[in-house]
Amino acid sequence: MEDPQVLSQAEQIIMEKFAVNIVFESLSFENWDEQVFLSLTSPDVPDMIEWDFRPFKMAVLKNWVNEGLIRPLPDLESYPNLKALSSKMSEYDRIKVDSEYYVWPLYRGDMPGDGKTAPVDFLYRRDWAEELGLYRETYTIEEFFKLAEAFVEYDPGKNGPGKTIGYAEVNWGFGEILRAFNNPPMEFVERDGEYVWTGYDEETLDGIKFMQRMYQEGVYFPEFYLADYSSAVDLFRSGRVGIIFDNLPLDNLDKYIEVFKGMYPQKDPYQSLAYMTIVNSDGEPWAYEEASFWSSFIFPSHLSDSKMDTILRMLDFIAGSKGKDGSNEKNMGSSNYNPNIEIYSRLVENGLDSFYTSPDIPSQTKEMFIRNRTIRMESKSRKVFDLDYQFFNGTAKSEYAFNLSSAHSSNFFEQIKRIIVFSEDVEVDYSHYIATLKPEIDRVLDELNLQF
Length: 452
Description:
By secondary structure, the protein is an alpha+beta fold. The chain contains 17 helices and eleven strands. A hairpin with a 2-residue loop joins strand 2 (96-97) and strand 3 (100-101).
């Protein structure tokens, strides 16, 4: 993790403009909620904390409010840029507790005009596919397999026998390939007027069998069950992996391309790397919506009105056009301001759409990203984000649904990993496993279908 005290130029400018001293303290992804709770109950609680708040954590938010740990936000009329951002978030009115707002959500804005379609995707070596005569505009899941298999067999990266990997994903992305079979593969969804659990679907089982086939035939990253986030990324960047699944908003795509330029200066990255569009049985690329925000800022109950105002004025400045594009040097409060450095930092994440104004990201990269996201946004099979379900806090749903969802549960996927690696009969072992979950699944379904 980067040193939290190594400030970017953007952060230094903010400190000068608002005459504040900002001290950063790092939190890790592991046990994020627990770390935030400990911070809130500490005598040295920070003035602002970033918390992994999402709709299914409304019960946690309400508990912290009831315990008096956090304070509400004031009316946003004095902060017009924040108010404008709030209007982009379709869930904003639903995050109230007792008619007040206690979190400032960090707007995703992964795509101009679309704050919800998840930017997760597949990136692959198009140059390798073309060399092998297997390049396609779109790939069925079987064509995906054949391409990954060919990467391993013919070694277009010239890594040596047994060293090229067909497909790998970042560790949290395990199981996303199942969406090509069933989108979503293991979640509670409304279907034909009632809620069902998609883990019962035959298509989900087909997807698990496919993953085992990839593993057994040497196409899949052989150490997938032990990998951390950087394992697959490092292998892809070094030319060992042909296809990778990762979170690919514009800034992350830019990192892949810039690293590729450094590794292979003789190659054109826009001809060598490409998004892989995998279509389902209907010929449509799978896609799904998420909340229009990811994580949030919360403020401890002891925070004074004056400090709260200063923080919100900083965020409002960042959310405004001068904060994002740096077009007015005087307004940036620094005679040394470099207009090519965008005011976007750990302090002030107010929408990834700010990257579209950044002169640091090449126009070709932006065009590549927007072209692919448009395909996803227009997909007829895109799973819509069910606000009623997400914000419903029934007893059974709150207790069990998190651990029965492919979007959240590491415990669930640990069992699927074991089946892929060790099972001699996937259908039997998967059926036995979900049978142990049936009482919990039924309780959630009964509650949902009674409520809706």
